[in-house]
Amino acid sequence: MDLTSLYTDIVFEHDKRPLHAGLREPYEAEVHHVNPTCGDEITLRVHLAGDPEDPRIEDVSYDATGCAMSRASASTMSDLVIGRTLREIEPVSEHMDAVMHSRGREEGDEDLLGDAVALVGASKFPNRVKCVLMSWKALHAAVIEAGGPLEGARA
Fold it and tell me: What's the whole-model pTM score?
């Protein structure tokens, strides 16, 4: 599989059959993000549970409209983080941000990113980076709004 191209079979699969799509309850925070460059939008909800010092992401649900890259990013991101603590996802989020801002110079670590590694081809196209990172930024904002500590993660 060529992960350097913009659209891969994994991107198309997550776009056609998104995981965790549809807004669900319960949730502690809901955020809405828009990419003004292209019109992509996401409403994302997060449900945290467990240790208040390092809560686990119990659920991420979302409603996303826009390009295949942004919808596939929401699908892969939610599947990757559900069930993990904030400390566990911090290096994943940081790696995704670094790879997406590398302009194609850095490869994604499939062990960290799972199916989201299929999105790294977009890093060569600066206008597409926002499409991919929008759901990650929405998750970060929702976690902060829910009162969870997510230190250091830029994505």
Answer: 0.90
Do 43 and 65 meet the contact criterion of CB atoms below 8 Å apart?
A: no
SS3 call for 29: strand
CB 24 within 8 A of CB 45: yes
Measured distance CA(125)–CA(82) in Å, rounded: 28
Q: Using an 8 Å Cβ cutoff, are 51 and 146 in contact?
A: no
How far apart are the C-alpha atoms of 44 and 144, rounded to whole Å? Answer: 13
Positive/negative CA dihedral, 56, 59, 62, 68: positive
Fold of 9-145: Sufe protein. Chain: A (3.90.1010)
Strand 41-49 relative to strand 29-34, pairing: antiparallel
pLDDT tens digits, residue range 46-77?
A: 999 999 889 999 999 999 999 999 999 999 99
Which has the closest alpha carbon to 86: 50, 110, 61, 113?
50
Helix (H) or strand (E) holding 113: helix 110-113
DSSP 3-state of 12: helix
Omega of the bond leading into 26 within 30 degrees of 0 (cis): yes
